[in-house]
Amino acid sequence: MALLTFIGAIQQVTGSCYLLESRDGARVLLECGMHQGCRDDEARNREPFPFDPLSLDAVVLSHAHIDHSGLLPRLAAKGYRGPIYATDATCDLLELMLLDSASLQEKDAEWESRWRARLGKPAVQPLYTEADTELALQLRRPLVYGAKTEVAKGISVTFHDAGHILGSAIVELEVHDHGLTRRLVFSGDLGNTCSPLMRDPAILDQADVVLMESTYGDRDHRCTPDTLDELADILARAHREGGNVLIPSFSVGRTQDLLFYLGQFYQQGRLPQQAVFLDSPMAIKANAIYQRYHEQFDPKDRALLAQNGVSRIEDWLPVLHCTPKSDDSMAINRVKSGAIIIAGSGMCNGGRIVHHFKHNLWRPECHVVFPGFQASGTLGRAIVDGAPTVRVLRQRIAVRAQIHTLGGFSAHAGQSQLIDWVSHFTHRPELYLVHGEREKMHVLQQALQERLQWTATIPEPGEQIAL
After folding, report:
1. What's the predicted TM-score (pTM) here?
2. Partner residues linked to 161 by β-bridges
């Protein structure tokens, strides 16, 4: 029988990776994500792959976020030359995100090597390079939603809209092995049905095995109107107090949601700030890709934009200033009040947001808004958990700004949405919880038992199951 090995995002949120092997010898890697978080987690990215990259027939991706795709360049550097299957929009976003990741890897290694040289220590090598990334990008094979495609002997894939970010997919894999057909469904990251722009996740009802994410398995998100009212109150308070508003945000997905909502505020006369800075070259480029695939937006949101005579998110928010160049980014720090600054990275482990923290985090009149999940071990998680000081750019900074978390803006499904999605499967397939912190998985496991009388399994790292 076919085997599935749980490699990454097992009892943790990042590093998504699963290996599917048929009895006929076909080997398909589902996801190739980067571990993110504390130093120990990130060190795992340098460990040898627990499989031979040359033995793989194909790689299948649910979407472009780095925790699902970020080790593809390293896979290519180790010799993999097979196809990488993803949706058409994901293939475009991969170029943007992986080249940015490679640039960061090279710059971080160069910076660290200079620091180590002063201590008489040897230089470090980047995890991968832009050249490695170009190799990986040449392997992309775009597919459209709903099209069944054979990706290896006896293994076919069909992508369904996951509603998480542009191009995100629920992955349906069929394994035809010695006259037996088995169906594996991986949820990918399921979208929050309250998020703007994206359609609701597709409903599937047939599977033998289901892998379901559990990032927010322990709770539901606040309803969108209440969350928007809270954000509007924060913006009004910051305007009165004379401080800036900093919003760490993922460049793909969360940023576009925020721009849509801020545009709504502007159109409704609820945006007191007269300057919104999008300080993320990657997010600026992502906006262009979102525009290219605008036909995949939720119809009601497309209609709203059209009714106001705009088609681009940027036109929806006239006070938006995009700052792709580093000089423009540094100039923002001369603005001491009245600005909303959206910058990456989403979990504050790098990117331009840390420079804005250096200039604003210690100021009590400033506000920091976290619109999404902060993984354990990240700078963002330390701030959310109430650390009085944090280390930013090798300096100790006091956290005196007012800190806010807005879980209602999450692009992930909440607990009830997860349970509703999986409840549509008939004949009770085997259910495995992945992509979540252990304690959140246990809460979701108990909720599934109580509401659906359905036993879900939490796999161990490296565990194998037969399909």
Report:
1. 0.91
2. 169
Amino acid symbol at 28: V
Q: Cite the DSSP H helix spans in 161-221.
A: none
The CA–CA distances, whole Å, from 394 to 41, 203, 283, 388, 397 equal 20, 47, 26, 16, 9
Coil vs helix vs strand at 276: strand
Pairing of strands 140-143, 149-152: unpaired
User: Which sign, positive or negative, has the C-alpha torsion 314, 319, 325, 326?
Assistant: negative
Sheet containing strand 430-434, edge to edge, reads 149-152, 155-161, 169-177, 180-186, 209-213, 430-434, 456-457
CA distance 134 to 442: 40
Per residue, what are the HEC states of 332-356? Answer: HCCCCCCEEEEECCCCCCCCCHHHH
Domains of the chain: 3-219+411-466 (3.60.15.10), 224-409 (3.40.50.10890)
Nearest Cα to Cα of residue 245 among 272, 218, 210: 272
Place of tokens 């809460």: 443
Pairwise CA distance, residues 297 & 305, whole Å:
11
Distance CA 393, CA 106 (A): 17
Which tokens in the block code for residue 444? 């979701």
pLDDT tens, position by position, 124-164? 999 999 999 999 999 999 999 999 999 999 999 999 999 99
Closest CA to 402 of 184, 188, 238, 283: 238
Please, how many CA atoms are within 13 Å of residue 218, restricted to the half-sphere of its CB? Answer: 12
Helices 415-422 & 438-452 angle (0-180, nearest 10): 50
Whole-number average pLDDT of the chain: 94
Locus of tokens 């290519």:
76
Alpha helices (runs of H) in 242-378, residue ranges in sequence order: 254-268, 281-292, 299-307, 313-316, 326-332, 353-360
CA dist list (Å): 246 to 270, 344, 355, 366, 407 = 18, 10, 11, 8, 16
